[in-house]
Amino acid sequence: MSQGIFIVIEGIDGTGKSTQVRLLAEWFAAQGREGIASREPTDGPWGKKLRDSAASGRLAPTEELEYFLKDRRQHVEELIAPALAAGKVVILDRYYFSTMAYQGARGFDPTEIRRLNEEFAPLPDLLLILDLEVSAAHQRIGARGDATNEFEQREALERCRQIFLSLKDEPFARVIPCNDSIAAVAALLQQAVRQAGLAPPISDILRLGGCAVGDELAGEEAERGGVIDRVGEDGQVAVEIRDLPVALFKSQLTGDGGAGGREQGQLDLRHARSLPPTAAAASESASLLFIRPAETP
Description:
Oligomer: single chain
CATH superfamily of the largest domain: P-loop containing nucleotide triphosphate hydrolases
Largest sheet: 5 strands, parallel
Helix content: 25-40%
CATH architecture of the largest domain: 3-Layer(aba) Sandwich
Radius of gyration: 22 Å
Strand content: 15-25%
């Protein structure tokens, strides 16, 4: 059984955590690893009280911290620990580092909050801190049509940001600038995962698709389509493309090259879309493109 992987994505409101959690889970799934995307506060009884308080008015500081601890303990016991034990990839939108930041901004000692949580909450294998200037974060919050709540007031967010950045020297932490496009930030997160040694090796990806390194896509302009000489049993195709960026695509396999077949077929990439955009499937030095054809209707 594969070892479980635990990744946490943190950052102040407006940094795009939820989107990046989803994209990273999709990236792992495309490589054959089941990813579970979750969030805190959860949708459990304690998490619901916390979420409701964001709109109705924050709880008293001590009560709020108590609810976070109870919600997280339940999350660890019911989802995080069992999923990791089963060899799955768990990707969280917020964890106890957010409690350190947001409750720390209310006057609690972040170090003490960390101690209380680490008595029962496992350390992540990788902490990805999405960093953005508070003014830009506020613009994003306004652009999505939301009004800032008490959790998102400018001065509080600045204190939260500084607490997040204070974790940058932790051996499992990486700070990711997120003032670029969603696709560019997704690529940075995937790069951080690879550098941390948490992405499946390219040999495992090829075995998953039933392909060999020698399987090639014919044609000089491969990005416009070409001939594939092998398709894996599950429809996944690995091809070698020299001097082109490595990426993941979802596309349509047409012609006689059905799943599991050895016949040649046309791979039309004119309408290809990245899964997620610009996601690299191998190390930066590799010259392999891993393609998952779209399902036929």
